[in-house]
Amino acid sequence: MNWDDMRVFLATARAESLTAARGTLRLDPATIARRITRLEEAAGAALFLKSPQGYRLTEAGLRLLAHAEEAETALSRGIGALSGSAEQLGGTIRIGAPDGCATYLLPQVCARIAEAHPDLDLQILALPRIVNLSRREADLAITVSRPKTDRLHGERLSDYKLSLAASRAFLAAHGVPKSVSDLKDMRMIGYIPDMIFDAELDYLSALGVTRVPLASTSVSVQLQMARAGGGLAVVHDFALPTAPELTRVLPGDVALTRTFWLTTHAGPKDARLDRITGLLRDGIRDEIARLEAMPVARNP
Fold it and tell me: Where's the HTH lysR-type domain (predicted)?
């Protein structure tokens, strides 16, 4: 076996189909299939259960996966030790993040890192779901819940705050709610209820709201709906400075706190990724503190 065969094996195991693995490997499915067959012949065992639904690892494949990932990590650490020894960082790092963080925090943080390290390429993967590090969708991820598997390490990154907000035009037309119980009669903006990918994001249920007339999987879309006068929304305090049309509503009753977690693969990181993780950690904490300290109007 050689490392190139291991790359094909890992990509197929993570993608669970030849077609999906094609994007990672930049090989056509027929070539990937031939490489898998060659690997299985060398191993003397079937590594995948193959069906029209995709490729699923056999017991032998699962055993090989653990060793292949160890080899991948060791190789990454070796390369990182070379690039991390210099002051300047290089290469490509992909960061997975929920779109609120990806839209309102990471652009500033990544811009500052890129200015200090011009040979470093930073990619932000903003998805309305949990980024799958096990399939190597990203090198690290910012999540709203601590990872629940031993294969991932979660570090508490920073708390952040959320408030109920609406445009002044909406409140002038529809009135200002006097209590949380009034919200059931107001037009609310939030996530599509059956597409909430993490319980930490189910803000409106906790407020007794059962109907969401304006909904999106994206918090930035929700914010724009609120800015347009669509209704009341739970928004990140760090996003409020970008929305001067909005004002806080019921600030004494609706003041939520959630936590960002910095999630990486368990085990030792290579020197380069360790340095980048530290830069992101400090940058995001500073950016949340800066934005949350900016003045925002309260309800009239």
Answer: 1-58
Instruction: Tell me the one-letter amino acid at 243.
Output: A
Cα separation values, 77 from 13, 73, 179, 269, Å: 22, 6, 55, 6
Structure letter (DSSP) for residue 1? -
Task: Render pLDDT for 243-285 as a digit per residue (tens, 0 to 9).
Answer: 999 999 999 999 999 999 998 877 666 778 888 999 999 999 9
Residue 67 has pLDDT above 70, yes or no: yes
232: left (phi over 0), alpha (psi -120 to 50) or beta: beta
Q: Answer whether 177's CB lies under 8 Å from 208's CB.
A: no
d(CA 264, CA 277): 9
- Decide: 164 and 250 in contact? Cβ < 8 Å: yes
**Is 291 buried (19+), middle (13-18) or exposed (0-12) by CB count in 10 A?**
buried
Of the candidates 58, 83, 108, which is a domain's last residue?
83
Does residue 104 belong to any structural domain of this protein?
yes
